[in-house]
Amino acid sequence: MKKPSCKQCRAKGEKLFLKGEKCYTPKCPMAKRGLALHGKSKRRPALTTYGKQLTEKQKAKLIYGVRERQFHRYFDLADQKKGATPVILSQLLERRLDNVIFRAGFVSSRASAKKLISYGHFFLNGRRHTIPSTLVKKGDVISLNPVSLNKAPFKNIKERLEKSKPPKFLEVDSDKLTITIKEDPEVEELDLNIDFPSIVEFYSK
Fold this sequence. Notes:
Layout: H1 5-12, H2 29-33, H3 49-64, H4 68-80, H5 85-94, H6 97-103, H7 110-118, E1 122-124, E2 127-128, E3 141-144, H8 157-163, E4 170-173, E5 178-181, H9 187-190, H10 196-204
Antiparallel strand pairs: 1-2, 1-3, 3-5, 4-5
């Protein structure tokens, strides 16, 4: 059985921002309980190198909502491409359709994006698309299904988009409610709290 999101954060000793907007407010249980972040709690024993690598892998899986088999497939894809495998791995995860919709500000969490995509609320290049794990590429255009505009999750969508700050690899049109993929994600800009080199070392053994 899957643990509730807040318990998963406490287990890792840091905020993973799995509940979206709530994680940034005083209502966040991590803030209420005053738990030490980033694994600095005195109760936590020092991890071995393997333990650190495993922790980073599990953290990435939780943040992006990816299962082990799929995550391993992303590593294999990254390992086969030319370039730095940790960077390519992070870019693959960032190019997931559910993550892009979250990054663009259409929803407050990746979990919400995953659910709304599967319900048919989004188009990819003009066609209804229901697969959250699809890897988008430069030139792809994501748009909100017109019939979904009056649905509860999107009632204040334009106001939400005006307040959001999407990363440079995305171009968001708050009037047309579209997202255009301009380029590959720049990991440095995204400030990901994940040690991707450790994950690559874990799978490379």
